Amino acid sequence: MFRNDHLKTIGDEEKKWTEDLSKILSEIPERLSRFSTISDMEIKGLYTPKDIQYLDYSRDIGFPGIYPFTRGIQPSMYRGKIWTMRMFSGLGGPEETNRRFHYLLKHGETGLSIAFHYPTLMGYDSDSPMARGEIGKCGVAVDTLKDMEILLEGIPLDKVTTSMTINPPASILLAMYIVVAEKQKVSKSQIGGTIQNDMLKEFIAQKTLMLPPKPSMRLIVDTVEYCTKEVPRWNTISISGYHIREAGSTAVQELAFTLADGIAYVAAALERGLEVDDFAPRLSFFFDSHIDFFEEIAKFRAARRIWARVMKERFRAKNPRSWMLRFHTHTAGCSLTAQQPYNNVMRTAYEALAAVLGGTQSLHTNSLDEVYSIPTEEAAAIALRTQQILSEETGVTNTIDPLAGSYFIEALTNRIEAEALEYIQKIDTMGGMLAAIERGYPQMEIAEAAYHYQKLIDEGKKVVVGVNKYATDHPPITIWKMDPEIERRQLKRLREVKEMRNGQKVRDHLNKLRGAAEGNENLMPYIVNAVREYATLQEICDVFREVFGTYTDPGMF
Amino acid sequence: MTPERKIRIMVAKPGLNGHDRGAKIIARGFRNAGFEVIYTGLHQTPEQIVAAAIQEDVDGIGLSSLAGAHDYLFPRVVELLKEKGADDIMVFGGGIIPEEDIPKLREAGIRGIFGPGTPIEEAVNWVRQNIKPKK
Fold it and tell me: Model confidence over B59-99: pLDDT tens digits?
């Protein structure tokens, strides 16, 4: 990007500056012997054109909406449309969560995001012994279509898009959503939304586990194939780095493992016989926005550039939409502190700003009390307002990719890209992500990084305000507690649904599903038929477990 | 004279939540401190944890919970240990545990409770002071 004679002058000037600086530093040394990001990547004090001398503007940066999309996926970015404000919500039963949805929509939220409770996430009904102590606590309990009907009451499914954080039973929740839409007279070709449906990162990090890796991949490809034909506006997989990062990875690992997961899904769908340009435009991504501001912005920019090249060069996609890395961002839960919880508002605001400067398509902002429990209404409202202040007061949405051209940001983008590509290559050499997971490779890399970071905090080399520095006592804040009545109501409803439904029809559909699972057919139509008759989530998952077996985390540390 | 046995600790994840970052860090920290560490892996029922603890003849069980089910799962482990006559195994726990839940957990027999932000060293020292290896 710079002329050679100009670079030489800059080099000479930098040399002089460094000499002057070292004189000053001999008297007043820098505060630290080493400066690094939260991922412990060492950072220099100053960046100049020399750090990006090999960068080619047209090839590597270019224009928003144009390959390789470093500057953003839409030509007008936030000048055209603000990101979707999508607050991850789920509490108690479907009634409470439906109320929360309406509350947030009334306050300006623009998309829904459903958090399910653990039994649903793991494929158990509320009346399972596995659900004891867990009902409604970390999200909403959904056992049958009935719960989903209550959950989505009064939500126009042809207008509002919904993201569902659900993995092993993703196909079942999608089926329930389709049937609720049917009942609203909205066809499945009109509905829009996302299922997370990313099992690879479950094995790596989030660990909501049910089936072994291979049948898990089959179910995922089933949903991709089905939606490509039947639910064209649905994002079939939300390939997620968030949980990898929250488990303690570095920014580079988050990026590399996520993109390697993406590569594995594309390969699996191609193996099924799908055309890359038919399904790739509906793949989306989901990243963490951690507290290290510039590292995150560079990560998002690098993500788009790598994915565009992977899709175009490796998978020979022709449709520009297949090259675009669209992503949702969730501010970093693991950066929040239980100590001095009001500080979390500030942390979340910086993280949200990084996500926006990184060009996110949708955003969840954590509530200050989310470190303790599900947020209260008041805390969730502050978190939503944080996004609104960002979008409507700060002016950061006026200019597209405003940090492009910064020597530091571009150098950091390059470096994160290069280091992520090294990881991806290593995983390719191992035989792809499934093979790497079986060896425990990403799991151990993350455990290593998490332990390293904890040591840095324990040694005071990284500061967490209110925890290892400026610690003070603070009065407890009010946190959300689940009313025990919710559990009783949920169990009662499940009993009633089981009594009211046509048991014979349910058994027939489950048997047909079993037959299809034992063969090679796409399971989605069978699942849709079963949920329509109010088969429970667990009844369907039990069929999967019987046919495919189960998977237990090996517990490496 | 036989050398003194090392402290044997089981780090366990009761319930369905998969947040194992803390459990793995503490398991490593204990191992580096010279304890023998058994990590159960995820999604263990209290029954499974107690059976494994007895079989492995551990001196203490460290429970980790980050999803709000500690109020049922932690006391249940202590209860089962009593039923099996293994209440010489000391139980402690950590994770996201609101202040107001702590007295109830202590009453139920959870001897040490470690909230978010606890340095590894603090947990290690607590174990050294409170848990003695069986003879």
Answer: 999 999 998 889 999 999 999 999 999 999 999 999 999 88
**Given this model, what pLDDT does residue B3 score?**
64
Q: Output the pLDDT for position B70.
A: 94
Task: Mention every residue, 6+ apart, whose C-beta is less than 8 A from residue B73.
Answer: A133, B14, B15, B46, B63, B65
Given a cut of 80, is residue B2 above it in pLDDT? Answer: no
Count residue pairs from A and B with Cβ separation < 8 A.
Answer: 112
CA neighbor of B10 nearest in space, from B90, B126, B72, B96: B90
Residues A194/A164, Cβ–Cβ less than 8 Å: yes
- pTM for the whole thing? 0.97
Give the angle subtended at the CA of A216 by the CAs of A545 and A142, to the nearest 5°: 65
Q: State which residues form the domain around B125.
A: 8-129
Q: Can you tell me whether residue A80 is helix, strand or coil?
A: helix
* Angle formed by the axes of helices A537-548 and A170-183, nearest 10°: 140
Low-confidence residues of chain A, pLDDT below 50?
none
pLDDT at site A556:
86
Average pLDDT, chain B: 94
DSSP 8-state secondary structure symbol assigned to residue A140: B
What mean pLDDT do residues B122-127 have?
Answer: 97
Does the residue B51 lie in any domain? yes
A350 and chain B in contact, CB less than 8 A: no
Count of CA atoms in the C-beta half-sphere (13 A) of A192:
12
User: What is the SS3 assignment for A160?
Assistant: coil
Interface test mutation site (partner B, options A126, A128, A138, max chain B beta carbons within 10 A): A138
pLDDT at A361: 98
Contacts of residue B121 in chain A, CB cutoff 8 Å?
458
Element housing A4 (H / E) = helix A4-27
Closest chain B C-alpha to A520 CA, distance in angstroms:
30
Residue B1 lies in a domain: no
Q: Are A288 and A490 in contact (CB under 8 A)?
A: no
- Residue B102: count other Cβ atoms within 10 Å of its Cβ: 13
Q: Residue A524 in contact with residue A223, Cβ under 8 Å?
A: yes
In-domain check, residue B97 = yes
Coil/strand/helix, residue A162? strand
Contact between A208 and B72 using a beta-carbon 8 Å cutoff = no
Nearest to residue A77, comparing CAs of A413, A407, A402, A414? A402
Q: How confident is the model at residue B29 (pLDDT cuts 50, 70, 90)?
A: very high
Looking at residue B5, its pLDDT comes to 87
* Edge-to-edge strand list for the sheet holding A193-195: A234-235, A193-195, A162-165, A111-115, A84-89, A362-364, A327-331, A283-289, A237-240
Is B134 inside a domain boundary? no
pLDDT at A45: 96
Instruction: Write out the DSSP string of A33-74.
Output: S--B-TT--B--S---GGGGTT--IIIII--TTSTT-TT-SS
DSSP-derived 3-state class of residue A169:
coil
CATH code, B54: 3.40.50.280
Split at pLDDT 50, 70, 90, the class of B1 is low
Nearest in space to A509 (alpha carbons), one of A548, A539, A538, A546: A539
Interface confidence (ipTM) of the complex: 0.93
Residue among A454, A469, A541 with most chain B CBs within 10 A, to mutate: A454
- Could you report how far apart the first and last alpha carbons of chain A are, in Å? 46
Res B134 pLDDT > 90: no
CA distance A557 to chain B (A): 5
Answer yes or no: are the C-beta atoms of A211 and A545 closer than 8 Å.
yes
Share of chain A residues as helix, strand and coil, in percent rounded to the nearest 5: 55, 10, 40
- Tell me how many domains chain B contains: 1
